Fold these 3 entries.
Entry 1:
Amino acid sequence: MSIHPLAVVRVVAPSSVNRVLPDSVPIFAYNDIYASVGVNQSDFARWEQQNGMYSLGSESKDGAILVPGFPILSKVADMYVDPVTLTSEETSALVEECERALPHAISETARQELEDIRLLAQRALNASAVIRFDQP
């Protein structure tokens, strides 16, 4: 039996948002990654109930975000629904958010995926590229 990731994080070359470089990180520990920054499945459900279905990557009407203190991880929360391509500034912020989340990882898989995303984002910045969260 084959196990498929829920989402994938890719490096995207700056010259064309459609040209993807060969680096990627499959996301299997979606719930554990978000639990590591304090958001559990009940929080996701409450957010959707208050802000509408498929609103995870959006600010609420009052300006709140899904994961307080983690605006990029909030923005990409719907990665398995719609692709989200980050700007260079957001890619840089993603590196910092992953660094802050790593000590709080609730599982080894979440820790490894956060570290892999951090390293991938750093490589993207070094190549003047950005990151895209997308479906596999």
Entry 2:
Amino acid sequence: MVIKGDITDLFVHCTALGLAAIVEETTGQGVLIKWIDQNQVQVISENGLDDKEMTGQVITFTKRSLEAKWPEAEITFKYADKSGKQKEAAASPLSPKVNSSIETNEEGLLRYKQGRMSAMQLMDNNLLSQIALNNLGSPAYWAMDNKGHFNSSKVDVGLSPWAMSDTRRGDDFVRSRLKPVCQLVSKIENNESAIHRLCGDRCKDELNQQKLLSQSTSATGLRMRGPADTLQLWCALHAFVFFPIRSVVSYGHSLQSNAIGAITIQNHSRRSIFFCLPIFSKPTYIEHIRSTLRSRPFYEKCKYFISQQTDSNAQKAQMRKSDYQALALFPRVAKYDASYTEYWADYGQLFNLSN
């Protein structure tokens, strides 16, 4: 399957990666990815699935998720509104970040933890979605201050930089994004229209709550505001399986990040985050892409370009010794509002390693 989209658009990368991961999960066969040019990326099944069969695998996988009931898992909690009146609300324990009313309460977070463990049991036959959600992180119910008390100001330290869905109005990622996407995709018929949507020839943004399609936040931070097809989005949200939370390297602050696929650069008081992906122009198994994303040399190459430390010919020669042909770096942008912060990946910059 050839997916049309700009190589500088992170959403396109994630659509291809997520589609490949889903097909690998459902068929048990190897899947390869290659960029044909800067406007087309190809997903290739080892057992020769055509476009219709790949689309069918995505829809079947979605239906299996709904049957397992995990998208519907919820916990309820009580909180006081601004007037002091007690109210009750619901949240998914699988979301990386939930309503602030539950975050500021240690007891509520422990209930969240217990609910998350129960919900994860519903995902025993859906390992891919389980890994994707775990990789986004969870509220830090373990966060303590130096006196051993729960520290509500540190509740977000368990989040991955890939967790860019905002939580205004009490929304949470699973109930407000993943669950409705799953429900919508499960109803799609596997026909030419669905294939065209997955390939990027058509776009149907069914999640958009904005008056203008250009202001849609459906892409969940994987691109700036604008339309995002729901079928592609379901795949893109499963690209998180490639980006587990962990330290990339063990020295210095410039390469530290709590998630694969991201670099945090600290420059005095300014902190910048970049998402980083290798570009393969030859068919490459996604397992090899996973190992590349976990390798220290990959992030050192990315850092050279981010910090513009490539003046030395020796450094350039060293960086060409790789089996990927280019690097794509996407700066994460933050827009601060009085009630929430909106994050998204800006258009990326491509760095050719073969010249």
Entry 3:
Amino acid sequence: MTKILLLSSLILLTACSSGYGHQAKGENLSVYFMDKTDEGKAEKVAFYWKENGLITGKKQDLQIVKLSESHQLNIIKSFEGGQSIPFEERKLLLNLQTKLEEEIFSDGLEIIICNDKFESIHKIN
């Protein structure tokens, strides 16, 4: 019994110490959020992704970070090449940012393209 409790505690600690925050998870999409008060926003983003056909066949990770007066949505880079974003993709991301501000993030939103550790590579604005 002690071994089971110890193993359960270890699994729970590992899940909570990922460094990416709390998590709302779906099929191939995980939305991490640093501030527990953003759980509802994370669920809405996941629903938006699904409803708008943004979930691909590949695993996708997003992260919501609450700033002092707005939010930041970190998206892991999925395009090939260096740090620059192709014009058409940048245009689509700006449209996405506007839609998410209208529907979920009324306090403002900035989309950031990140590496697989959620380290900033490129700001959309």
